[in-house]
Specification:
alpha/beta; 7-stranded parallel β-sheet; 11 strands; 40% helix; globular
Length: 274
């Protein structure tokens, strides 16, 4: 078995590469700059760009399965790029594709389902690692977290658990045609998450609640358009649908192990906050 992992140096891809390797699977780890990767010598690090599908063609010829990470914003250009990658995979006689998607209704889903390959789609909840992107610097420098809607709930998931499900789907039978919604083991608010970080690093953290307008302005500064801000940042965070806050047993059902807690994730990454 040989598997091409796209986004191999990313949040989930790195865990997938490590777990496949520990299972004795031959891995092609694709990234834009493989020379900067820190994988062991057993991993075949290869160069490719998801925005330039033709760069994947040669690598698809050497494997039988594909892990595809789809970009969050499905612009027309990105949709066409993903569509071309799937076409190239089919032409290369790829037998199985496992795709990571971040929301229901991603326009590339039907292309995958109609591809003729065995397919599995993963829809994870919010990554626990988002705490690094949004909070680590301000906790380190100021002992402060600034966030909107601090009591809104999230079923955050450890990236290694997403990877563990992906590895099962890539290496075992019985996952064809399945769409797995993946959550962590707790429905946790930002306020509770910050409290856990504070306890684990042994340092008080002040939580400053941003107004809804401040949340909008910060998102605009980060380059998000108005539609994305209203639909996802305000809509999904301020008033998340009940399904987004419901803990599901999927990770344990598929991997045989309980999903990792946020406290465990913080303990593994506490040096980023101290």
């Amino acid at each position: 078995m040989k598997i091409l992992v796209t986004g191999a140096t990313g949040t989930v891809g790195g865990h997938i590469v490590e777990q496949l390797l520990s299972n004795g699977v031959e891995v092609r780890a694709l990234s834009r700059n493989p020379k900067n990767s820190s994988f062991s010598p057993e991993v075949h690090s290869v160069a490719g760009d998801l925005n330039n599908p033709e760069t994947l063609q040669v690598h698809l010829q050497t494997v039988d399965s594909l892990f595809l990470i789809t970009q969050s914003e499905q612009t027309e250009a990105r949709f066409l790029a993903n569509q071309r990658i799937i076409q190239l995979a089919k032409e290369a006689n790829i037998k199985k594709i496992v795709a990571l998607m971040d929301y229901e209704g991603n326009s590339i889903e039907k292309i995958i389902q109609d591809s003729g390959m065995d397919w599995t789609i993963l829809r994870p909840a919010e990554f626990m690692k988002n705490a690094l992107y949004f909070w680590a610097e301000s906790i380190q420098k100021e002992g402060i977290v600034r966030t909107g809607f601090p009591d809104a709930l999230s079923v955050r998931i450890h990236e290694a658990d997403i990877a563990a499900v992906a590895v099962k789907a890539l290496t075992e039978e019985g996952h064809h045609g399945k769409i797995y919604t993946l959550t962590g083991p707790q429905s946790l608010s930002n306020r509770s998450a910050v409290t856990q970080i504070s306890k684990i690093i042994g340092k008080p953290i002040e939580l400053i609640e941003l107004t809804e307008e401040q949340v909008r302005q910060n998102a605009k500064i980060q380059g998000f358009d108005d539609e994305f801000i209203e639909d996802f940042i305000i809509g999904m965070v301020k008033n998340p649908p009940e399904s987004n806050c419901k803990v599901l047993p999927t990770v344990e059902q598929i991997t045989g192990k309980p999903a990792r807690t946020f406290a465990q994730w913080v303990s593994e990454n506490k040096h980023y906050f101290e």
